[in-house]
Amino acid sequence: MIARQNRLKLIEWTIDTLTYFQNPITNKVGIEKIAHLSNVNNVGVPSVTCDYYMENPHWDSNGIDIEGGLIEIIEAMPMIGAHILVLPLVDNSSISDKQNIDLDFFSGLTSRLSNRNVRIAFELDLEPDSALRFIESFNPEHFGINYDIGNSASLGFNPREEISKYGHRILNVHIKDRLLGGSTVPLGLGSADFKSVLEELQRSSFPGNFILQTARATDGDHLGELLRNIDFFKRALIDA
């Protein structure tokens, strides 16, 4: 209802560990309700962010059936119209300082992805050359990249270099602003170079969606903050 009233056309569904079993996408009744509300409000759910995996990477899952959980999510996604599964390989699931990570774990999901017409978009914290080498080890029919503008800005990466190298593999973009080496801040107050990002995405013919993953309101007016961020990003699109 709120999304429809404010002319929001799509949202990205989020799944975390703490409320995994309460998440509607994990049961038949919940899936049907998501699909119904999406339809009657004309608000699409094209993608799912799996923070569940970020909090429990397969190499450090403490006995949790990570593969089974991901398969359950992949199976449910088409029933709500979602076809991109964002897997964050950042923070607790970062591979930047790890060796010999079992990449076959992800490739083992390929048949499920193919059967359900779902693609995985990895969110990475790797420098551009490493990110390119990583993603090129995966079949582009099933795997790509989720580009997070704020995270890259926080790491000090050059967006023109990043996107010129692997823009052809970007499936989804998170709109965020962060301080260099710091936290998430309202759009325009951090280190993100939106103009360069948007110009490079245009050059790479980015075909996907822009998903707001912006800072929460400090005064509790989250809707107002969201609408201000939308206006900021619309202006950035015009200027690019």
Offer a quick outline of the entry.
By secondary structure, the protein is of the alpha/beta class. 40% of the residues lie in helices and 19% in strands. The relative contact order is 0.10.
List its traits.
alpha/beta; 240 residues; two-stranded antiparallel sheet
Strand order of the largest sheet: 1-2-3-4-5-6-9
**Record field, number of beta strands:** 9
Instruction: Please give the radius of gyration in angstroms.
Output: 17 Å
* CATH superfamily membership: Divalent-metal-dependent TIM barrel enzymes
CATH fold naming:
TIM Barrel
Mean pLDDT: 94
What is the CATH architecture annotation? Alpha-Beta Barrel
Query: Topology as H/E string?
Result: HEHEHHEHHEHEHHEEEHEH
Q: State the distance separating the first and last CA atoms.
A: 32 Å
What portion of residues is helical? 40-55%
Gross morphology is: globular
The number of helices is 11
Q: Helix/strand/pairing class, anyone?
A: alpha/beta
Strand percentage lies at 15-25%
What's the number of structural domains?
1
What is the level 1 CATH name? Alpha Beta
List the helices and strands and how they pair.
Blueprint: H1 2-5, E1 10-15, H2 28-41, E2 44-50, H3 51-55, H4 66-76, E3 84-89, H5 104-107, H6 110-116, E4 119-124, H7 128-135, E5 143-148, H8 149-155, H9 159-166, E6 170-175, E7 177-178, E8 184-185, H10 194-203, E9 209-212, H11 222-239
Parallel strand pairs: 1-2, 2-3, 3-4, 4-5, 5-6, 6-9
Antiparallel strand pairs: 7-8
Helix pairs in contact: 7-9, 9-10
